[in-house]
Amino acid sequence: MKLHRIEGYIQDIWLVEESWGLMLLDGASRADVGTICDFINKQLHRPLNDLKIVVVTHMHPDHAGGARALRQVCKAQIVSANVPGQWYRGIDGLLMHLTDILLAHWVAGRMRKRRRLIWYSPYITPDIALNDGDSIPGFEQWKVLFTQGHTDRDLTLWHQPSNRVYVADLMVKVKQRFIPPYPVFYPNRYKASLQRVRHLSPTSILLAHGGEVRLTAEDFDYLENKAPERPATHWRSVKTKLARIFGLQATSN
Q: What is the mean pLDDT of each run of 10 residues along the chain (253 residues)?
């Protein structure tokens, strides 16, 4: 098994290479589709239909945005968690989808990336929906683990022979520290997910934002201490800011 790290638009892209096929550990963003196809053709010298599996760990723009296009172009199958319903459902979901795209553009700006088209459908129907602990068809050395908290359908991908794990956005690396992502919708699930990965004692952890890393016990302790006690979500952030604004106005009056 070879593992390739590709620089994506705003995140790292991880591509598994086996003699019989290729697997993306996440769906990347819509802006990354050309980059992925060029890497397969020009760097690996393989046909696009060698991409057999695209995993979608959760529905955010840099993890699901390219999946549908890659299914169409490469004839790959989309794998995701067997969780009922769509993440971006209802009016609230559509507003959240728009907010997440705006946040992705903001991150790109902070990274000094030029503005790219990253719009994608908020709805996805996987070809294969897996349960916690299932192996990925065709890549049976990889297991999916439910590590929810960031959303209700987050997946960690565990390569058992090497004991390496891809955790998507379970944690992000900022200024040499590992911190929880934003948002965290389910704090209790999030803390349980951290414990689950910690108990695996992985040889290394693959991040969507931070490369391949090794966490010490101190790093995990810091992460757990920084984990929110209450949901840290878009709407709560808006309400907090509004409360501060109106609170200041009331004080000044």
A: 98 98 98 98 98 98 98 98 97 93 95 96 97 98 98 98 98 93 96 98 97 97 96 68 48 38
Sequence-distant (6+) residues with CB within 8 A of 230 are: 187, 236
Q: CATH top-level class for 2-226?
A: alpha beta
Angle between helices 90-110 and 234-252 (to 10 degrees): 80
Joined tokens for residue 229:
């006690």
Terminal CA-to-CA distance of the chain, rounded, Å? 66
The domain ranges of the chain are: 2-226
DSSP letters spanning 237-249: HHHHHHHHHHHHH
Specify the long-range contacts of residues 109-117, CB closer than 8 Å, at least 24 apart: 111/10, 113/9, 113/10, 116/9, 116/30, 116/31, 117/30, 117/31
Question: Coil, helix or strand for 84?
Answer: coil
Tell how far CA 159 is from the center of its chain: 17
Give yes or no for a contact between 118 and 101, defined as CB atoms under 8 angstroms apart: yes
**Spatial CA neighbour of 126 closest among 90, 149, 155:** 155
Judge residue 63's burial from the number of C-beta atoms within 10 Å of its C-beta, 0-12 exposed, 13-18 middle, 19 or more buried: buried
Helix 217-226 and helix 187-200, axial crossing angle in degrees, nearest 10? 170
* pTM of full prediction above 0.85: yes
